[in-house]
Amino acid sequence: MLRSRFAPLLGVGLLAAGLLVGVQVQDAVSGSEDVEQLRKIEEAYEYISRAYVERVDSAQLAEDAIEGMLAGLDPHSIYISAEEMNRVRESFDAGFDGVGIFYEFVEGRQDKDTLVVLMPIAGGPSDEAGLQPGDRILQIDGETAVGIDQDGVQSRLKGPRGTTVDLQVKRPGYRETLDYTITRDRVPLETVIAAYMVDDETGLIKLQRFARTSHDEVKAAIEDLQAQGMQRLVLDLRGNAGGLLDQAYQIADEFLSAGEMVVYTESRHPSNRSQYRATAGGVYETQPMIVLVDENSASASEIVAGALQDHDRAYLIGRRTFGKGLVQQQFPMSDGSVLQMTVSRYYTPSGRLIQTPYEAGGGDEAYYEAKVAIREAVEDQLAPDGGKVDASAFGTDVPDSLVFKTDSGRLVYGGGGVLPDFIVEADTLAPALRTVIGKNIDNEFARVDIERRGAAFRQQWEGRERDFVRSFRLTDADFDRFLSYAADHGTPVVATRAADTEADVLVRDEAEAVRDEVETRIKAFMARRLYDADAFYPVVGQIDPSLQEAMRHWREAQSLAQVSR
């Protein structure tokens, strides 16, 4: 199974650069030893194709050979078939029809890959249905998805708009599997999925990935929020798995002063050693700024977060990031397929290598286990008062070789991912909330409830999104209807939890304990249906622990803004 992934790419993205490196690589194998080894590969191919007991598929044989060569490299050097390459290019365009997920294959037992949701595309069918990053897709329309390949994913998940597909997923932290029916639709590909005023002076921009239009979208969002009175900015990079390097550089440039290093790359090939420095004229260079990150913030997200942290430009809040510090470049093959191969490592301005350590040829499973181990090492040291602790507390447990300093002398750390300045423990959902979210009951009830309220309700709130966010409230009767809806649609509601109570039921007193969270989520889904996809975020932000934590740290962000001027 080829270790290919349909995911945002971190690479130079320039064909000319790829061709230039290709020439250099060709020159590098011109020595007698390299030529001899290349000839050995050709001989093996000829022997197998001509003498093997059964006829072999020459195309598959070539791909297997490529797989074998890449297996001994790093986890992010992959082969992309011609068909998949077309889909990758499509992912950076305006939109397409489908279920709307970015996904990856994680190597599983008995060499059978597992299909994992990297992230649902905001406003798309999977996002609407309730899929979440990290969901492992076990079945598609009743048939196993374990061991599925790229062609299988495309043939079974893609389809005409309006058709449905049934998925069974295993969600981390849930004992039971979850079932979803997703209606295929047009998938939007805007990368700024939310830009709004949290309060009268605080703006928030949520960037889902780094695609061709991301810099323009972020710049426009900043200017729009400034026109609304924004004096301080929250840049939300949680769940952002990365994308194009040039977009990460341009976005960071909007926040940094002329001449400041954004990122630099190192490689054995001089043409792949680069420095990216900020230019003059950024739209938001001096005012306070907080960046939100988590374990799903990767590659391009880490470039932006690392640069802003190293220059004391922003205060980082959340959890240690993914840890991808390798830059890939695409090398086109004659049949339209591509080798997406690591050509350099990137470093933050202070000299940090963000890449999680890996063993060449160790496989995906060991690589991801290393990431989990690093994250758990942080969580083991969290303070007992809700899991929040200043990151400087980790200094005594980090080797000197992984300790770096920001422009003002603050300690920051390498060794796999960006460690925030302030760590927020991963959300631990109460049982009732876990059931509501896992079974998508809040979203489905919001749809039904808006239909019940009718045209008068829509007319009442038409054009009044900010008023809806601030003043609309669900009543006691609404919450009772919600519980009745859950009971009528496959989730029993019981008075108390007994020893034999099944996990996928709602216990009334447990539901009452998280009523505020449930009602806020229902309201958020109602806002999405009344207005548009990004209307969800101003509402759900009211119960977002990381965002609420950020709003308590503007003093630190203000101090950094003064230092960085």
Summary of the model, kept short:
With 565 residues, this protein is α+β, with helices and mostly antiparallel strands.
Which descriptors would you attach to this protein?
565 residues; seven-stranded mixed sheet; 24 strands; 20% strand; disordered N terminus
Write a structural description:
- The protein is an alpha+beta fold and 565 residues long.
- The chain is built from 19 helices and 24 strands.
- Strands 10-11-12-15-16-22-19 form a seven-stranded mixed sheet.
- Helices cover 38% and strands 20% of the residues.
- Mean pLDDT is 84; it is low at 1-29.
- The termini are far apart.
- Helix 12 (441-461) packs across helix 16 (515-530).
- It is globular, with a radius of gyration of 25 Å.
How many runs of DSSP E, i.e. beta strands? 24
Mean pLDDT across every amino acid position: 84
Proportion in helices: 25-40%
Beta-strand residue fraction? 15-25%
- Report the structural category: alpha+beta
Report the sheet with the most strands, covering strand number, pairing sense and barrel closure.
Answer: 7 strands, mixed
Widest sheet: strand ordering: 10-11-12-15-16-22-19
- Count of runs of 4 or more consecutive helical residues: 19
Low-pLDDT segments: 1-29
Q: Rounded to an integer, what's the Rg over CA atoms?
A: 25 Å
Oligomer status:
single chain
Task: Identify the overall geometry.
Answer: globular
Distance between the termini: 51 Å
